Amino acid sequence: MTTIATTMTTTPGPGTESLPAAGPAAACAAAHDPRAHGFLPERPPVRSMIGTWTRLDALARAVAVAPTREAAIALVERAHRTDELSALRQRVSRLSPRNAEAAAMRVAVIAVSCGWSGLDPLAPAARQAADEAFLDLWAAIAHRIDHDQFVALPTLALHNWAPERKPRRHIPIDQLARTEPLVPIVRWAPEGQPLSRLDRLMLAATRLEAHGIWLFRLAETLAGRAPDDSSTPTALRRLVRVQHALRAQLHSEAAELAAAPATAQQRAVLAALAEQGALEPPVLQAADAVLGIGGRRMGEGRRQLVRRHLPAQHRAWLSAMDRHCAPVRTLAHRGGPDAAVYREAQESLIALRRTYAALVQTAAHPTTSLTAAA
To answer: In angstroms, how far is CA 247 from the centroid of its own chain?
Structure first.
């Protein structure tokens, strides 16, 4: 990635000039600049919550290592009976934005562990399937962060990591996630035991996002460019190099992930997220917004369904890229060397997605390997 970094342009493209409003988060969307750190949080996630919120921290940690879904639900129901969940619900409005994201990550862990990840916490039918006090807490936190579909891999991964050791100085968040050894905040394996496959998959997704920062910068460079602009093929060639580097990064994660332990409960978590289309990392969605692979293969409705798991400002940025990169995507219907470079970029994204999908399959099924995606 060093070679890529030293040759990359960070000239702003038009992609941030007219970000669409997104309800209460519109101001945040306008200020968000993925060139700074991609879709990683601006600061390292909250490692340990304080005050009353230590109860949610402890509940999420206990639920994550519960041997079965029924055992996880029993822990939540006990927290309901002791009024822990209602006490937290009353304090949601006092959470800072950063702590609200930390609470959301822990709620996401609990929801997927209990098999409730597909529920709408405000739907009447959800009351028959899940603990009522937990649904109230879930809905309140969703309202606090202005995002009701946060139970997904982006929340679990991008807000569930910390550097293994405290950095000696402040460094950018993407550099921190690229260069420092990372550990999960809420572990899916008991303390003192090796990290599980699910732990390693979440950390791999975080590192993928950190290494993908150059892809976000290239997306901004390509936004608004004409297909015959002399800078377009250069940027597309760099995009190919970045996607190849991201694929190599995933391959480097594969051996340790395959050797890690897994449980049936963890595989059920992955299966539930996959069923909702809640697994694809934001960096791959950013590449799709530039190159248009998903819109063609899945249909526009399916693409928006996948994006619903991202915060409002991230969805706004992706929608802006859809619009501003449309001229570049006309290369798909042309001939000549520039069109060939565009098609190479599309093919490298398809290969990257296949490699990521194989990593997910390795996490979910012990016999799966990345050989087929090589």
So the answer is: 17
Asked, for residue 9, whether it belongs to a domain, the answer is: no
324 within some domain: yes
| Type of residue numbered 312 | A
The total number of structural domains in the chain stands at 2
Locate 286 and state its tokens: 């950013």
Rounded Cα distance, 269 and 68, in Å:
11
Give the whole-angstrom CA distance, residue 161 versus residue 180. 11
CATH of the domain at 253: 1.20.58
Q: Write down the pTM of the prediction.
A: 0.87
Residue 234: closest CA among 334, 367, 127, 338: 338
Does some domain include residue 303?
Answer: yes
AA letter at 32: H
Q: Which domain holds residue 93?
A: 37-151
Contacts of 358 (CB under 8 A, 6+ apart): 254, 368, 369, 370, 372, 373
Does 95 share its domain with 140? Answer: yes
- The verdict on residue 321 lying in a domain is yes
Same domain as 196, residue 313 = yes
Kindly state whether residues 98 and 229 are assigned to the same domain: no
- Maximum separation of any 2 CA atoms in the chain, in Å: 69
| Together in a domain, 226 and 147 | no
Same domain as 137, residue 183 = no
Q: What is the pLDDT along the chain (374 residues), one digit of tens a residue?
A: 333 443 343 333 333 333 333 333 333 444 567 878 899 999 999 999 999 999 999 999 999 999 999 999 999 999 999 999 999 999 999 999 999 999 999 999 999 999 999 999 999 999 999 999 999 999 999 999 999 999 999 999 999 999 998 877 788 999 999 999 999 999 999 999 999 999 999 999 999 999 999 999 999 999 988 988 989 999 999 999 999 999 999 999 999 999 999 999 999 999 999 988 899 999 999 999 999 875 455 556 677 888 999 999 999 999 999 999 999 999 988 888 999 999 999 999 999 999 999 999 999 885 544 444 44
Asked if 129 and 239 sit in the same domain, the reply is: no
